Amino acid sequence: MNKVTIKDIAKESGVSTATVSRVLSNTGYASDEIKERVRKVARSLNYQPNAIARSLKIDRTNTIGVIIPDISNPYFMRISRGIEDTLQNENYYLLFVSGDENQKKERKMLRVLMEKRVDAIVLATSGGNDELINQINNSGVPIVLIDRKLQNDTGEIDSVVENNLEGAYQLTKQLIQQGHTNIGVINGSLKVSTGMERYIGYQKAMDEYCLGIESELIFNGNFIEDDGVKAITNFYKLDRKPTAILSFNNTMTFGAIIQLRKMGLTIPKDIVVASYGETEAAQLLESPSILHVKQLPYEIGVKVGKILIDRLINNIKGPTNQIFNPIIDISE
Amino acid sequence: MNKVTIKDIAKESGVSTATVSRVLSNTGYASDEIKERVRKVARSLNYQPNAIARSLKIDRTNTIGVIIPDISNPYFMRISRGIEDTLQNENYYLLFVSGDENQKKERKMLRVLMEKRVDAIVLATSGGNDELINQINNSGVPIVLIDRKLQNDTGEIDSVVENNLEGAYQLTKQLIQQGHTNIGVINGSLKVSTGMERYIGYQKAMDEYCLGIESELIFNGNFIEDDGVKAITNFYKLDRKPTAILSFNNTMTFGAIIQLRKMGLTIPKDIVVASYGETEAAQLLESPSILHVKQLPYEIGVKVGKILIDRLINNIKGPTNQIFNPIIDISE
What we know:
elongated, transcription (chains A, B), HTH_LacI (chains A, B), DNA-binding transcription factor activity (chains A, B)
């Protein structure tokens, strides 16, 4: 059997393999002239993408493992929807497991997915497993990091993340420019890249305006709803209460606004809330003006899906390191 | 090798295998005297539950597939947490896949999980796959149905569900007793047992009070948030608008209250909302009084976990058909 690869098509058409992939998967730019030429060559060589893909890796299972730290967080579910929609025509299915913001559990789940012989793994890491993750990626099962980079980030693994530092910096600056100096911060885990980068973004803005950071105004959470509840409870025990809350993910923000509501406080009259990430439920508030960094989870998922198609079907090597820039919005 | 089973222990102790299982798994009631006797026999026979379990089914993978129609619905996530917590000490892990309220997708996912050689499947069915489900359950991979029964329910498959008819009946009766006759109903899928049973419960209450059912006040949805939004939009186009909304699951309720809020309507001043299932976000409303059927998803998950331990480890045959009774609550 003489199998036609995209390399053959690239050679015959006089373009790069990346261009062939873009044309055949209908993604990214190519001129009409190039598109026509590539498709003509593909037809003439009787190119069959799925058959080729299977022949390249005959033990393919057509399943992709997805490890996310909190399976009920709508942010990760939107990313998954984007991945699934993009892979739909390729007959790939997603298997979800929960990392539970726990290094040991994530480690176990990486091994379980390898035992299940998934073709690739999409991972929002809870931190601490750099070595195993690199090992799996090098063994031929491609990993795509989403939302969170490795602690020792070398850029060798595909990743689609946000510019967290910039987003948190802009968000904090907005609060300072509105006159807030007493800001209660609800941190995510500092062991996770998003948690650390958002905290650094906040520090950068505070530094720029020569504002000191008071430790009693920093609550170190772990990205879960209950942290938002606890943080608010703590802040309101202080003598000098914050005039603004800065929360570093959507679920902690949800916990915070639920708790503020329970305490009879109104946003933004009694307290201003700023959030890295949207909380759909905030629309139920009387005055739903929560300053926030808008995230694009569906678009991130689509990008991840395209990377997977390149790695698994088009046999195009990586890594791709894509960074989404923050969009600041003052209304939910 | 002479393998000790719980049957041997039951014989030796003079109690049933179910009692032995209860004692050894520390679940359910047994007198102190029986507990001591069973444990003594187990020790004397050198009973090793995990080793035995493995010997009974040597190709065990220690994974359980979970198919849920909407992976982002907090109700199913609470059930999953209950399962996971109960199975924690047994070293079992959950693999989640999404059925997407779609018969074809669910069918495909059942096959994918079988290919992954899961030891058991927990399923909230989207409907229409009775035959395949029975086939898998009879093939030795136990299925536990959660939330939803088969369309042709014979009770032969383990199930943990709610008394949906009674819950919806009580909820509707409450609305009628408050003086509402013009009730806008947001239905789930009638192909799914919960959707059908809740609708019948509503019909029963309407009949009891000799109230006719107007088709323009029935919106047939599919248990997703967007159905709640659409239903409200439709109801408010009617000449005779409903004075109360009756929504048959938590996510449709969320969509409905988001849409009511957008239209500037206040609950319960402008319109009363009743919901089968809680919506945590309703706490953010000015007056968060949503009449609702309280569900016990975590407790359902614990029950499912115990059934799985019986089937996979204690080798106790089923089926168990557990029904949770509704709790009506007038405040979220």
